[in-house]
User: What shape does this take?
Amino acid sequence: MNELFDPALAEAQDTYQAIETIVRAMRCDFGKRAQLHANHAELTAILTSAQHAARSSRADDEWDNYLQAQYNLRLWERNYWQLMTDLDEESGFFDTQEDAIKAAHAMATVMVREGWHPVGQVAMLGEFTIYLSAKAGPEVRIYGELIDGKPSSMHLEYRTLQHSSEWSRLTGIDLHVLGYFTHLFQFIAD
Assistant: This one.
């Protein structure tokens, strides 16, 4: 049987993919990534320079330098290319972890609700919601409980504007990724 397209579900899945991209970037070693790119660029520049020198002079030592530069670049690529590629993929489209944090905060509106407690005391339990979707489309949020001002459980939910009172949970997601993302936010006042 062919199921109908659910734009709210699609929005929730897209939002979760964006969360995964941000979390991968947060775990990326951007310093190592930059170092690998700089090393590769330097070895490529050395090879290009040696190639021009060898072609213009035709001296044996220039050709030896070219062959050595070619060998060094190939050896480096054999040892580090896959790591550099993996780090590029892990970084997503972010240049720094700070960029990933800014993207997380730009896509989210955080709200908390505390239970009944005496005046002057801080509530130990509460709820939080992180709204993640555009105002005009289907709504997506992370909803969960707070214990001592920290998220303790959470799930990703979505709903269409037509069913404004019913939230559906997105299943099949990694709750560790969701938890990592959620911990990028502050739930208590300074």
